[in-house]
User: Fold this.
Amino acid sequence: MRAVLDTNVLVAFLLTRGHITSAILDGWERGDFDLLTSPRLIAEVRNTLKKANLRQRIRPEAAGALLEALAEEALHTPGALELHGVTPDPDDDWVVSCAVEGNADVIVSRDAHLLGLKEYEGIRIVEPAEFVRLLEADRAVQDHPSD
Assistant:
C-alpha cells in the first residue's frame, strides 16, 4: 500500500502517542505501507514545525528526527505535477498532487477539505482511524492468506 500522510497527521506523531498515531507510525516502521512525500509536503511540514505554538510543544530533536525520517525513509515524488482547484483550499492540492504523482492508494488526513472529496482518481481519502483499520485488514490478509 502506498500512502500520503497529510502534514496534520505527521505533526500528530510528535504531539500525541495515542493508539491511532502509534499504529500508523508502527505500520510505517514495520513496512506495512510505503510513505510518499514530495518537496512541497516536506517544506510544509518544516514550516508548520516552526510555528511558535508548536515549537513550545515539540522538542527540536523530535522535529528534526521526523524531518530526517521523511528525507531518508519516505518515497519521494518529484513534485512536478501541479493540480489546481481539486479542493477548496489550494494548499491541499499539493497533497493530492503528491498522491497522484506517486500512484498512492490512500491519502490520510484530518483536513475537512480533503476528507470531503472521499476519493480522487481512485485514491481513497480517509481519516487516520480508517487508515489504521485498512492497515489492520491488510496485515490480517498477509498473516492468514486464503488458499
